[in-house]
Structures are given as C-alpha cells and as structure tokens.
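Journal club side-thread
Mid-discussion, someone asked how the predicted structure for our own chain would compare to the paper's figures. Pasting it here so we can look after the session.
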Amino acid sequence: MSKATKTDAAQHWARADLPSEVEVALQAALDKLARAPVVLRVTELAGYTDWVMILSGRSERHVQAIAEAVQKEVTAKGRRARGTDGLSEHMWDLLDFDDFIVHVFYHPVRAHYDLESMWSDAPRAELGLPSEVMDTSDLDKLDTPGDLPAYRGDLTFGGFDDEFDDDDDDDDDDDDDGPLADD
C-alpha cells in the first residue's frame, strides 16, 4: 500500500491527488458513462487498501462494460487485479488492485448495500465532476433485483485484523465474583 504524504485525518483530497492508477480507473469508468463516482481514502480505516472507488451503472450490461474498461485500462498501465468478484452477474463487480478497490454497482444494488455509509469516516476525494454525472435521480427509479448478490465481505470487512477480537479486558459477565460482588 502507498504511503500518504499528508495526514489523512485532516486531508482534503482532490482529483489531482489521486494515484495515477486510480485516476486511470476513474477516467475509464467515466468514459463508459459511469455515474456518481465516489473515491474514498481509507488508509487509516482499513488494513488492506488505501483507496475505495464506488460507481453506479444503469444495467447489468452497463456494469459489465464499466468493469471491463477499468480492468483493461489499469492493466494497460502495468497493474493487474489481484482478485475480482461478481463478474458473472454484473450487479456488483469488485476489482481488487491491492492499494485500491473498485466497486461497480447496478445502482439499486449500490443503494441497498450503501458502502458509503460504512466508510462515512473516510475522507472523500473532491472529483469536480459535472452534475449530470453525479445526479442519480433517474437511476433511483430502477427496480431493485429480487435476488441481490451476496455481500462482498464479512463481519470484519473494513476492519483491522485485531479490531474485532474478543477482548478479555472488557468482560461484562454479571456473575463476576470480583471485589464488588455481594456476599
């Protein structure tokens, strides 16, 4: 993972601050008319990546076209995805490039899983995109599929390895026979 040159907590990220591969991925998605892109700086929140990009498509075919364009352009710059998921359904395509992850959603699936809320503490890059790219009012009218794709993660998705460990120090057992127990 890359190192930030400024402290992430107080950093205001602009499109010009994005690593070149993230910019390539963003531009490839925009060239395929991806909507409402969000780029989050998650270095200080996640132990497995630095950047998360979230994009919307208007159909499964559109999601496929966006994901394929992102993979093609980033690969052309010498980076290959370490892993992918959802490429057979194209309702939620995940491309893992190690220090950045791209989520391409069929928009109603994006709204359902709402990853932006999960990463609400992450600084967002100001992308300076026109309102017609950011407006999802037409996409908000699309029907949510009856058979949603499986969640791409688990209970610790987005956390550090030790963040969800059981900690013996804060054991809340009521039947504690410690010094304050009634005899």
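Post-session note: The CA atoms of residues 16 and 23 lie 8 Å apart.
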